[in-house]
Amino acid sequence: MTHDPDFVVPETEDFDSPHALFKELRGRCPVAWAEEMGGFWAVTKHEDICRVLTDWKTFTTTVQNVVPRVATTQRRPPLHLDPPGNIPYRNAILRFLSPARIEGWKPMVRAMVAEHLDRYIAQGKGDICEDFSFVLPIALLAAFFRLNPKDAEEIRRVGAEFNMALQRQDFDMLRERSDALYAIAARLIEDRKANPQDPDQDPVSNLLAVRVDGEALPDDKILGALRQFLLVGIIAPTTFIGSMAIHLARHPEHHAELTERPDLVPVALEELLRLYTPYRGFARTARHDVELGGKTIRAGDPLAVVFTSGNRDEAVFPEADTYRLDRGETDLVTFGRGPHMCPGAPLARLLLAETLEQLTQKTARLTLTAEPEMTRWPEYGPLSVHLVLTPR
Ligand code: HEM
User: Fold this and answer.
1) pLDDT at position 228
2) What PROSITE patterns does UniProt report for this protein, alphabetically (predicted)?
3) Domains in the chain, start-ordered, CATH in brackets?
4) Which of 66, 165, 301, 369 could staple 378 via S-S, CB 3.0–4.6 A?
5) Phi/psi class of residue 158: alpha, beta or left (left: φ > 0; alpha: ψ in -120 to 50)?
6) How many Cβ atoms are within 10 Å of 183's Cβ, its own excluded?
7) Distance from the alpha carbon of residue 184 to the mean position of ligand 1, in angstroms
């Protein structure tokens, strides 16, 4: 599993440099091999990303899900299973994310954003990631899974440590923190077995109630699914909120426009989700030799579907590096495509739109006071954004 390298993964990055690299790759070598992080193909064009994600018979999810490869022991459905094995687990969570359910979450999300944002704005300055965006998605997750405050706090701590270990590529720590998340998931399952809740209201009780051909789902797979659900929705909103803040600080005219016209928030959010797509390293593995983007991918080769790049592909988005609110319907890959497309997207959009609206209603200006600290693969976005906030 090695090829002549087409590019080198940079040791250090800033907020803009990944976009410059991906633009260069889209022009020169849209499917590009790198030796770093175990060796992988970076798939950078929108069309190729969609092909890899929809042709799951050729590109399986059962081997490696992110670049760099995180070697943990168990497969976690639904993301780690190809169809049809993924479907019962996916349906179990989808049920809680229908448009009617999301509508019901609105007042709660609004209050949750206000509680955390007002506290941060009152400080007058600080790191929006540490003081706000690390905390908010976990509060939402805790409510979504009806966690008790002790488990919610533990997930907040362990989730943050897991994220840090991933950023630093400290794989021993990563395994240890992953085990700690498994332990929380196992406790939650035991609790729901002992104290069953209404499966129509409680996602864990619903997973336990699923029957396929009359059989309950296997215990180890339920555990894996819950472990995945507990983390998957936390990381992207954390870095993405940091990216939104950097954009507003760099473009006070866009901030002012949203303050003046809160009705533009939904379309502005879509444009920001396009420009600063938080995932670049979700992965698939080729089952057999196949041609893609002029390259021969060998059986067993991992491919990273670089969403962060596909959303700036000039073939699909004219003036791709420019913030424009007149694009109309857009074909974003921010939330993936195909059988694993993010079921949490409506909830994520609700949380992020509420954040963008309240941030631009409650502040007149954001000023960056330090260079942001950046995440690494498999994410894109800042880990810290120090700001001075001018309240309205
Ligand atoms: C900005 C926020 C988010 C982004 C950008 C995002 C993005 C993604 C992407 C790209 C995938 C597909 C990965 C792949 O095909 O390999 C995915 C899967 C998934 N996401 Fe999200 N996500 C976000 C928030 C959330 C939230 C809030 C939840 C929970 C409610 C969630 C739950 C999931 C689950 C369960 C999967 C696996 C789905 C499956 O395999 O069928 N995500 N997400």
Assistant:
1) 87
2) CYTOCHROME_P450 (PS00086)
3) 17-71+85-391 (1.10.630.10)
4) 66
5) alpha
6) 13
7) 20
Atom in ligand 1 nearest the alpha carbon of residue 339:
41
Q: Is the CB of 283 under 6 A from ligand 1?
A: no
Nearest-CA residue for atom 6 of ligand 1: 335
pLDDT computed for residue 205 by the predictor: 96
- The answer to whether the CB of 383 falls within 8 A of the CB of 129 is yes
Q: Ligand 1 pocket, 278 CB below 6 A? A: yes
Residue located nearest, by CA, to atom 19 of ligand 1? 342
For ligand 1, whether the C-beta of 348 sits within 6 Å is yes
Query: ∠ CA 215-217-218 to the nearest 5 degrees?
Result: 110
First-to-final CA distance of the chain: 56
Say yes or no: CB of residue 78 within 6 Å of ligand 1: yes
- Asked whether the CA dihedral 180, 182, 187, 188 is positive or negative, the reply is positive
pLDDT digits (tens, 9 = 90+) for 198-254: 999 999 999 999 999 999 999 889 999 988 888 888 889 989 999 999 999 999 999
Spans in the chain with pLDDT lower than 50:
none
Amino acid sitting at position 193:
K
Q: pTM of whole model > 0.85?
A: yes
pLDDT tens-digit readout, 112-139: 999 999 999 999 999 999 899 988 988 8
